[in-house]
Amino acid sequence: MARGSTSVEVRRDGVAVITVSNPPVNALSLDVIASLQRDYGEALRRSDVKAIVLTGTYLHMSFLSRILC
């Protein structure tokens, strides 16, 4: 079984983009939550990060409604 994960990229303009990858719908799993906590924490600790964007691979982001509600 594939494990969900996240990755973080900090652009030159100070925007950290955290991408969730857990096909097919980017559902929250324990792996995704742990990875998201790690990458979010890294972005918060960096002095060059001015904003954080959370996005997902594929067409769906089912977890986002859980975070925002």
Automatic annotation (TrEMBL):
A GO cellular component annotation in the UniProt record: peroxisome
InterPro entries to which the protein is assigned, alphabetical: ClpP/crotonase-like_dom_sf (IPR029045)
GO molecular function, one term: isomerase activity
UniProt-listed GO biological process terms: fatty acid beta-oxidation
Residue ranges the record marks as coiled coil: none
Keyword field: Isomerase, Lyase, Multifunctional enzyme
Record-given protein name: Uncharacterized protein
Species of the source: Oryza sativa subsp. indica
